[in-house]
Amino acid sequence: MHRFYVTPEQIQGETILITGPDVNHIKNVLRIKPGEEIVICNGQGKDCYCIINRVSEREIEAKISSVKETETELKTRITLFQGLPKKDKMELIIQKAVELGVYEIVPVMTHRTVIKLEDKKKEEKKLERWQSIAESAAKQSVRGIIPKILPVMSYGDALKKAKEMDLAVIPYENAKGIQYTKEIMQDLINHKTIGVFIGPEGGFEKTEIELAGDHNIKPITLGRRILRTETAGFAVLSMMMLNLEE
């Protein structure tokens, strides 16, 4: 069944109005007619099973027949703090992280970050592009929310944000043995909010790891192999999914 997302403001009682690019997609690409059923997600974890009432040039009107909780969302909210990588790697990272269940993604400027977003307009365009990728990935993976891509943060500000969470981890090649990491992963279910820090190409400076420790962020190991920045996040998130799925 075809799936679409709306904002809470588009839901009026038992009626939902779909506007924007989805209208053309429904009308001219999918050729969905009045009387057919679609799923409309409110972006807050609820799926509305609807019947199309009316199709016009500017909007689609649908009537809600039933509402269910989206079954794909984790009870634990995971925030990915991603050190900005070079070129278009961030787009792949966002896409796959959303598929793996993150709640939000924070691009982070670290000491070894090569890319510089000093132009405000260019940064805004990047964020718009990244948010669009997150939305497409959410649709593909049947998410109940569209994860937010937050504005770029300094490493210091990211640490402050993570300090408000129940648990935060940072993969580091000199972290304690694998057993320590396994114990952390097995205890994830007891936390409602988790932060994951991933460095850019070249990883974190030793001083950054020490600063993370001062903020009670726990270093973990991903094994003996050195992973690329776009691989490290997927590895951590995959381990977390395995321990958090119910």
Automatic annotation (TrEMBL):
One Gene Ontology CC term in the entry: cytoplasm
One GO term (biological process): rRNA base methylation
Keywords: Cytoplasm, Methyltransferase, rRNA processing, S-adenosyl-L-methionine, Transferase
Transmembrane segments: none
MF-aspect GO terms: rRNA (uridine-N3-)-methyltransferase activity
Record's subcellular location: Cytoplasm
Reactions accelerated catalytically: uridine(1498) in 16S rRNA + S-adenosyl-L-methionine = N(3)-methyluridine(1498) in 16S rRNA + S-adenosyl-L-homocysteine + H(+)
Keyword Cytoplasm: yes
Top-level lineage group: Bacteria
Pfam families: Methyltrans_RNA, PUA_4
EC number, as in UniProt: 2.1.1.193
The Ribosomal RNA small subunit methyltransferase E methyltransferase domain, residue ranges: 73-240
UniProt domain Ribosomal RNA small subunit methyltransferase E PUA-like: residue ranges: 18-64
Keyword Transport: no
Its biological purpose: Specifically methylates the N3 position of the uracil ring of uridine 1498 (m3U1498) in 16S rRNA. Acts on the fully assembled 30S ribosomal subunit.
Name recorded for this polypeptide: Ribosomal RNA small subunit methyltransferase E
